[in-house]
Amino acid sequence: MSNRRQITLINFAIVIALSIVACGATSPTAMPIPEDTPLPTITPLPTTTPLPATPTMTGNIDVGGYKLLYECYGEGSPTVIVEAGGGDKPVVSFTWKAVIQGVYNTTRICIYDRAEVRTSEDAARDLHALLNNIPLPGPYIIVAHSLGGWHARVYTHLYPQDVAGLILVDTTTIYEDTIKVLATAFPTYSPDEAPAITRDREALLQAPIPSTFGALDLITSAEQVRQAGSLGDLPLIVISQDPKPDDWRGFDPMIGQQLATAILKVQADLATLSSQGVFMVAKTSEHFISMHDPQIIIDALAQMVEKIRNH
Contact at 8 Å (CB) between 45 and 293? Predict the structure, then answer.
């Protein structure tokens, strides 16, 4: 399986890897991915603005029996809070360095290394405790990547007064909802269809629903995200990678194209969570947009900061 296709599946099914290769295997398997999954080696795009020698704020804050490491750069409001993806710890991984370089001269931006939490609500309450203990006044712009999007949506539901805007960066969607959209990539079943089409449909649409991601209870967390509901008129920007048919090598080429289109629709649908939702596509990026194409996140943050300051 190609690395790009595996990242696509981790993003949308979170822990499902389909054992379909060009020669054609038939049985999907669930593969648990621990919270400390190593990130792929990616060379960040060059940047012109160096980070200051030290953060403007840093610490290791007790949020109730364990500590969260955080760093903030720059000054000004609204403060940007980075909610990283499932296996990412941005203080030590530098996955958000290029974005910080492009933002900290405009407003304060903070990153933190999330603890291994049981549910998205746990993650949201940990972040709330961290921000209260620093203390760091809100309301905030939260920029969330991948599985961090679940935590950010639950946080916004629990503490709406704390959130001035939300940016979802190639974020994870609820598995069952994603599968419903992916199903539209396949023609209606026919006994006369090519065996490969039948195989692909069954392997993808009947894959087992993942229940955990490391320590995270995905079933409970997904229900928490569902209950969070819409975002009303909250400023929202959704940024997606540009899915490619090559992500689905081993599938029929026509189905691969349709699956790529369906994945893009899944992301575009997230923008409808708010009446002010905006959808963007990072044309040159894969899943780790903060490293592949940080400028699109920088531009989105600049747009949102200006909007919030003017209103």
Answer: yes
Instruction: Indicate the pTM of the whole model.
Output: 0.83
Tabulate helix, strand, coil % of the chain (nearest 5).
40, 20, 40
Instruction: For residue range 44-92, list pLDDT tens digits in order.
Output: 444 455 676 689 999 999 998 899 999 999 999 999 999 999 888 888 7
155's CB contacts (< 8 A; 6+ apart) are 83, 123, 124, 127, 128, 142, 162, 163
**In this structure, what token pair is assigned to residue 49?**
């603005």
Q: Which residue type does 258 have?
A: Q
- H/E element holding 111? strand 109-113
Q: Which whole-number Å values give the CA distances from 229 to 52, 123, 264, 272, in the listed order?
A: 39, 18, 21, 11
CA distance 86 to 281: 21
- Report residue 81 CA to chain centroid gap: 14
The number of distinct structural domains making up the chain is 1
Q: What is the CATH number of the domain that holds 257?
A: 3.40.50.1820
What is the domain extent for residue 19?
3-310
Per the listing, tokens 């030290």 go with 54
With beta carbons less than 8 A apart as the criterion, state whether 153 and 228 touch.
yes
**Of the given ranges (122-126, 145-149, 202-206), which has the lowest mean pLDDT?**
202-206
Q: Where are the alpha helices (DSSP H) in the chain?
A: 3-13, 90-93, 97-103, 120-133, 148-158, 175-182, 195-205, 218-228, 253-270, 289-292, 294-310
- Report yes or no: 146 and 172 within 8 Å, Cβ to Cβ: yes
Query: Which residues fall within 8 angstroms of residue 88, CB to CB, at 6 or more apart?
Result: 39, 95, 145, 146, 148
Token couple for 143: 């920029």
